[in-house]
Structures are given as C-alpha cells and as structure tokens.
Amino acid sequence: MCTLEKRGNIFFLTLTGDDEHRLNPTFIDSIKSALSEARSQATRGSVLITTAQGKFFSNGFDLAWAQASGSNSGFQERLLHMVDYLKPLIAELLSLPMPTIAAVSGHAAAAGFMLAMSHDYVLMRKDRGVLYMSELDIGLTFPDYFTALVRSKIGSPAARRDVLLRATKLKAEEAVRIGIIDSAHDSGESTVEAALRLGEQLAGRKWDGEVYAEIRKSLYPELCGLLGLAEKTLISPRL
Asked: pLDDT tens digits for 32-56?
C-alpha cells in the first residue's frame, strides 16, 4: 500500500503498486501508520516527501469499495465513512512536525487531489497527469474540510471557482500559472529529483519541527478548526 524510507533527514513516503491508489480505510490506515512512524523518528531538519508509483498519484476515494455494499444506502454509508476516515490523515499532515512536499507523479483526483494539497509544497510532472476535483461531474457534494482546504491553499477566487464549480482538469503548467502548485517538471523522475533538492534545502535549515507545525496550523485557522487541531504556543529559541 505504501512504504516509508528514511535517507538522512528526509523521509520518502511512496504509494506503491501500479493501480490508482484509491483511498479506502485499509489504504488510509497504511498511510497514517507511515506518518506516525515518521513523526516518531523526526528530528530537527526532518522533511517528508510523498510520491507514488505508476500512472496515478491517487484517484480519490475507492468508490468500488463503497459500491461493494450492494445497496444505495450502503454505498452512501461507506462513502461517508471514507470521508470521516480520511479526515484524521489530513489532520496528521497539517500537524506533522516537519516540512512536507508532494511530488505528484501522475493523476491526482478528488480526495487524491486533497491529499496532495495537504502538503506544504506541491511539485508535479508536466508530461502526464492532471489535478481534478471530479465531484461535480459525478454528482457529489464536497466535505466541509475539502472546501476549507481549497480556500486555505488556493488564493485566487477564479482558480477556486474553476477547480470546484467547473471541475476543470488542470495540467501542471496551468496549475503553476494560477498558483495551485509550486513547479512543473519534465517527468516523474525529474519531479522527485526536484522534490529531493527542495527537501535538502529545507532540511538544512534545521528548524524545530514542533514550532514549524504550530506556525503551519496558524496559517489555516478555518481548516484546522474543522480538523480539530488546536494551536499551542511554543517557545524554542535558538539564540
């Protein structure tokens, strides 16, 4: 489901396999376990890079898992369960005591798009893959923390409109132009290489991770309120 590898101060979280990396409870548990391990091993200068194998970064919630219930009411119940189950994972990324980078190596749709946007930096390959909030096209509304995440991370009202109210499929260069991601790269390999270079720069600052996490939370009060993340005042001077 996913692997966690530590190279110096940098943790590499890789969504494994060659499928769509759809988010069901088992997969979410796997990612949460990896993040818990990274948190337990974090030191000054730690950084997390998340990437994925194959064509997809993540194609969102596992709708086939929801449909396996065999009834419309069961589908809705399982879908709502996944919505609630993903919430602590997003909270974990928002409170992780280190900078986080998503190296988006393929399509990132719906909840998979939100997973990528929960990182501090988003880098993406431009030769393949799109960012896409599919809910409007398939007839679903957005969870409150999804829309709060979009409001928190996408500064342009026009860009937010196109993402949520036009279900626009954004390639990397367009996503850079409208300020949704940080940079676009020629291939999956070059995206990960750029993420590693950025990670090494950030790791070199040797910031206190807990202070970093609290400052991050203070940037997104609406989102953190919905996620149940309370701010703490920390004083850890390096004089």
From this structure: 999 999 999 999 999 999 999 999 9
Range 61-66, long-range pairs (CB < 8 A, 24+ positions): 61/22, 61/23, 61/24, 61/86, 61/110, 61/111, 62/22, 62/23, 62/24, 62/27, 63/22, 64/22, 65/22, 65/24, 65/25
For residue range 147-194, list pLDDT tens digits in order. Answer: 999 999 999 999 999 999 999 999 999 999 999 999 999 999 999 999
> Is the distance from CB of 42 to CB of 100 less than 8 angstroms?
no
CA–CA distance, 14 with 57 (Å, rounded to integer): 10
β-sheet bridge partners, residue 50: 13, 102
d(CA 119, CA 197): 16
Residue 108: pLDDT over 80: yes
Topology, domain 2-227: 2-enoyl-CoA Hydratase; Chain A, domain 1 (3.90.226)
Q: Does the reported pTM lie above 0.90?
A: yes
pLDDT score of 239 more than 80: no
Contact at 8 Å (CB) between 75 and 67? yes
